[in-house]
Write a structure and sequence with these properties.
single chain, alpha/beta, 3-stranded parallel β-sheet, 8 helices
Length: 213
Amino acid sequence: PEIELTPEQLEKANVKESLYVVSNFANEFFQKQLETDEGKTIGLSYFKERGMTDETIRKFQLGYNPEKWDALTKTALYSGYKKEFLENSGLSIFKEDKSFDRFRGRVMFPIHSLSGRVLGFGGRTLKTEKKTAKYVNSPESDIYHKSKVLYGIYFAKSAIVKQDNCYLVEGYTDVISMHQSGVENVVASSGTALTVDQIKLISRYTKNITILF
């Protein structure tokens, strides 16, 4: 039998789908920026300095958000994406009549769901100013709950089952460099303390966790 959704459930499902759609648009935008002069000079050169190959950069869908105040926001609005979803996803910040990109001037790491959909982002600044936070993550939203997500789980799940073990590391680049070295059963807590929900996520695939902090 078909499940009847209440109007409230239907509205929530529509909101979530809209957030997935705008997050996917942003992910493609960030990846394309690596092909621009600014993206090559700043973003791509950072990834290369960290020893990442073109194949790895493509696999993890790494990208760059330009230094301009509203590069993503302006492009998304022009492309017909709604302000409310740009704001609710945390991609854009709106103040009075001004708009800003949350991840301005940062290299971008998309955070994927188990099925590979983009839930949110981590952005790393390449500036050395002490007032600038090194990493900025997407805020909590209807699709992104930091305590329930593990970076890299989408890419690692089959290897975790095969190896019957999961390596748990701290950051995005730890996951990526291990994958590139052939160790694929690895995920990151992305700066959060290990939570019950994250352990439950891993336990779908193995009961064994090796912590490498």
